[in-house]
Structure formats: structure tokens, C-alpha cells
Amino acid sequence: VGELQTAESLFGRSIPVLQSAGLQAQAVQSVVISAGLHTWRNEYDDAHRVCEDALDLARELGSTFDIIGAHWFNGMALGNEGRLGDALTALSEARRVAELNRNEYWLPRLPNTFAWIHMELGDTEAALRLNMENVELAREFDMPEGEANAHINLAGIYLGLAESARAHEHLLCAERLHERDVWFRWRYNIRLQAEYARYWIAQGDLSAARSSAQACQTAAAKHQARKHRAWSYRILGEIAMLEDDVEAAASHLDESLRVLDQHPCPTVEWRVLRLRGDIAARAGDNAARDGFRKRARSVVNRLAESVTDGDLRKRFLTSKTVSDL
Predict the structure, then answer these.
(1) 6: exposed, middle or buried (C-beta count within 10 Å: 0-12, 13-18, 19+)?
(2) How far apart are CA 189 and CA 215, in angstroms?
């Protein structure tokens, strides 16, 4: 339910007890989920360390469930860290083991996670296909969380394609799932509010957009979702710019960059830097504009270098949002 500090404290107390009592299966599951706590909070070094510990324990026990989970959390941490090629490798191993074992818990979560990486790389076609695949799998296995995440991803894609009506359909689907089931809904609700904010911007309703962005920000702060907190500031900056409030826009974007300075997330950072450059240009400071755009290009280049697939790297660098930097 998103009470991460309480969960972390309980795991810290319970894991040694489970291990000393010989309850290794329960212990390794606890280690896997504690890795998730670090992943969700953008604590990459801790996430990778705990994922490696979990993998060692899971392999020793032959626990495929926990092997999949450790690769999944590690893949998400790598993706947020900007190591996109490594993220795809970790997620591919999670999918391989999940498919071999027909694991009904992880299979309805994996396609939308792959889709997220493809979205970041501008591969819209693959992202659409993977998210629709995830919707079908989640319905087959009755996994509302996996379906909701896929619908939110699809809403984001359709907003990027300027198809607001189709985006709204997926937002409504995710909202209905949020009302129906409590399993991890605290997590995807943060993203749901962010996409609603983008939807309202597209509709020209900046008041509703601000309300959704603030709801995203509040939830992200409560659950220590640093990436999404930075993104909420970016959305608020865009709203302020649309209202011609350059000073407020700059303030929001600078706060986003301060969050990212402490908890880096390159896939968000370059977008924040790009908009910050636009705001500087609006204020008539072309030197600052050029500086922010240069920083954005540097982040984009690092992301591209992390991708081993040449075709996917080229697709990213030639995508509409990146190529005109």
C-alpha cells in the first residue's frame, strides 16, 4: 500500500529472523521486495546490491519466482539510471525465465516494462504493441495492476501522437482499475495523475492540469518517488510557461533539476533541461538557453551510448523529440 519506510523497517527485522530459522524461501522473497524499495526510490547502488544478493539466494534455492523478480527490479533500476541497454538485458532474462515457467505473477508485468524502455527510446510502434500485449495478458491472469500500468503507458503514447480522445479512453480504464483493486495502486496512481495533467494541458484546461500535477507531486513526495517528483515539477513548469509566467516556470524547472541532482534520472533530466532552455529563451537569455540545450544533448548522448542495439540507438537519436535538440 506504499508505506515504504514501515516496510523497510519490518524487512530489516524479519529477514535475519527468517534466515536464522531456516525459512530461506520466505527470506529470499523478502530480500527481493526490499530491492524494490530501493528501485522505487531511485537508490541505484542499493538496488543493484540487494538484487545481486537476491539472485544469489534465489539461484541457490532454485526459486524461479524470485529470480524473475530480482531481474525485474534490477532492470527498472538500470532503466531509471540511464543504462538502457543493460536494462533491456536484465528484463529479457526476467522474461525468459517467466516464459519458461509460465509465471502468472510476472508475465502480466513484463511487457509494459519493456514498453517503457521503448517509449524512452522513441520506438512508438514497439511500445504500442507491448502495452496492448500487456493488457491482454493482465486480463487473462486477472492482474489489474499490470493492466493499469499498460493503460497509463498507452495514454502517454497517444498524447504524444496528439490523439487525446484515445488517450482519455486509456486513462479512464486505468482509473476504473484503480478504484477496483488496491494492489500497488499507490505506485501507478502517481503516473496516472501525471498523464492526466498532460491530458488536461492538451485540452487547454490548465487549472485541471495543475490540480493533477499537484496530486502527482503530493503522492510522489509521500512515497519517495524522486523521479516522478521531478517530473511533476517539469509539468508545473510547462503549465506556468503556457500561462506566460516565465519566473514561475523557471522556478519549477530549477526545483526539478535540484531533485535530479540528488537522485539522477537521465530519461527525465534531458526533457527538463530542454524545457528549461525554452524558458530561458522566452526570458531573452539566449546564452542560458544554449547552455541548457547543450546539457540536454550531453544527457541524450549518454543514453544513446548505453544502447547496444544499433537500430534502436539510431531510432532514439532520430526521433522527433531528440533530433531537433
Answers:
(1) exposed
(2) 9
- Angle between helix axes 110-120 and 144-160 (nearest 10 degrees) is 20
* CB 282 within 8 Å of CB 260: no
Q: Give the per-residue pLDDT at 65.
A: 97
> What's at 72, amino acid-wise?
W
Determine the straight-line distance between the first and last CA of the chain, rounded to whole angstroms. Answer: 40
Q: How far apart are CA 249 and CA 322, in angstroms?
A: 22
The residue to which cell 509460465 is assigned: 102
The per-residue pLDDT for 321 is: 84
Res 80: pLDDT: 98
The stretch 170-176 carries a mean pLDDT of 98
Residue 320 clears pLDDT 90, i.e. is over it: no
Gyration radius of the chain over CA positions: 20
| Cell numbers at 221, concatenated | 513526495
DSSP class of 127? H
Average pLDDT score, the chain: 97
Task: Dump pLDDT digits (tens) for 48-66.
Answer: 999 999 999 999 999 999 9
Distance CA 71, CA 204 (A): 41
Return the sign of the alpha-carbon dihedral for residues 196, 200, 202, 207: negative
Place of cell 532552455: 277
Question: What single DSSP character describes residue 77?
Answer: H
Q: How far apart are alpha carbons 183 and 248 in whole angstroms?
A: 37
Instruction: State pLDDT tens for residues 237-257.
Output: 999 999 999 999 999 999 999
Torsion of CA 43, 48, 54, 56, to 10 degrees: -160
The stretch 179-190 carries a mean pLDDT of 95
Rounded to whole angstroms, the maximal C-alpha distance in the chain is 67
DSSP annotation string for 144-202 = HHHHHHHHHHHHHHHHHTT-HHHHHHHHHHHHHHHHH--TTHHHHHHHHHHHHHHHHHH
C-alpha cell at 209: 492540469
Helix, strand and coil content of the chain, in percent to the nearest 5, comes to 85, 0, 15
